[in-house]
Amino acid sequence: MFSCHRLIATAITACLLAVLPVNAAERIKDLASIAGVRDNQLVGYGLVVGLDGSGDQTTQTPFTVQSIINMLGNMGVTLPPGTNLQLKNVAAVMVTATLPPFARPGQALDITVSSMGNAKSLRGGTLVMTPLKGADGQIYAIAQGNMVVGGAGAQAGGAAQTINHLSAGRIPNGAIVERAVPSALGQGDYIVLELKDTDFGTAKRVVDAINLTSPGAAEAIDGRSIQVRAPIDANSRVAFLGRIENLEVTPMQQVAKVIVNSRTGSVVMNQKVSLQDCAVAHGSLTVTVNNQTQVNQPPPLSGGQTVVSRAGLVNIDQEGGALMNIRGGTNLADVVKALNALGANPMDLVSILQAMKSAGALRAELEVI
């Protein structure tokens, strides 16, 4: 259960988010990616040696023993049949890396090494040469090097103390690329920009921004993909894409959305969230949301115009407690703030928001994480 102060702070954060300025201009490189220009995940199975007695307990991890026997066999060392290896300085690990686009053989990659057995620590270990494969089963890099583990641990007399995580570490520049991934960027007359979020309005604005500098070069395929005519020459194409990526576009506002984390009580919403008239009763809490029409009449002979506006009124009642009246706009920030002031817990907020959504009073997408 989270304290009322925590919930009030959450509501204040939501209110601040609701009054942020309208979307500012962003670069196309921040809004979209180029089709075919992507990372590729690599993974491999290997062994870390040189541990100070903190390796796998081989009686419980037979795959570690099997890997050692296979490795020694490849190096010309044959063990007598039935040999029972008791290893303490070796650990079986999974090695992962990300192959960036346009990586060429000979370039170095950072890798992450994670224990998959029962090793107590990988600190001080050395990863033995490990092939890294892609989703197609081909080897794209070879990894090897000394581990860098950010944690520390000690034990004595049955007591143990550990700081941070000792079962995973990284090796900067620990892998060498051996195979390049083919790229279709330099093929054909067109390249395709893919927006990170599907939005027809933003796609139209991106097309307009590109055509303003290169008339007729861009056209929208759908709400996410934009086809752009690019130069055939590789050098000219790279220069053209460099200019396109840095064009600034103001994206359209996204759909109204409310994100609720039921575990932490966090409520985050964007500036388009609003409520219609509704009345909500939850336990001992009663919430009423109404709109009031206000008419502002200018003084006689002033030349002004009569303005009609709508002001929101939020009334919240709690049995056995004080009656709280809040005047303001009928938006979700007012309701969340009032509920938190009364000490509503996170589950109250989630239940009330879900009921509002089901009743059609919450004009936003509600996502519970």
In words, what does this structure look like?
The chain has helices at residues 4-18, 28-31, 62-74, 200-213, 234-245, 332-341, 346-359; strands at 26-27, 32-34, 40-49, 91-99, 108-115, 126-133, 139-146, 152-156, 159-163, 168-177, 190-195, 218-220, 225-229, 248-249, 257-261, 266-269, 274-275, 278-282, 285-296, 307-318, 324-327, 362-363, 365-368. By secondary structure, the protein is an alpha+beta fold. The chain folds into three domains: 4-22 and 255-368, no CATH class; 40-177, no CATH class; 184-249, Ribosomal Protein S8, Chain: A, domain 1. The protein has a six-stranded antiparallel barrel with strand order 3-4-5-10-7-6. Strands 2-11-13-12 form a four-stranded antiparallel beta sheet. The longest helix is centred in the N-terminal third of the chain and has 15 residues, at 4-18. Mean pLDDT is 79; it is low at 1-22 and 320-329.
Quick overview:
Keywords: Bacterial flagellum, Cell projection, Cilium, Flagellum, Signal. One of its GO terms (cellular component) is bacterial-type flagellum basal body, distal rod, P ring. By secondary structure, the chain is α+β, with helices and mostly antiparallel strands.
Question: What count of helical segments does DSSP give?
Answer: 7
The class by helix and strand makeup works out as alpha+beta
Based on CA atoms alone, the radius of gyration comes out at 30 Å
Helix and strand succession? HEHEEHEEEEEEEEHEEHEEEEEEEEHHEE
Q: Can you give the mean pLDDT?
A: 79
Principal-axis shape: flat
Number of domains: 3
For the secondary structure, the number of strands is: 23
Uncertain runs:
1-22, 320-329
Main beta sheet: 6 strands, antiparallel, barrel
Name the strands of the widest sheet in spatial order: 3-4-5-10-7-6
Strand content: 35-45%
How much helicity do the residues have?
Answer: 10-25%
Distance between the first and last residues' Cα: 17 Å
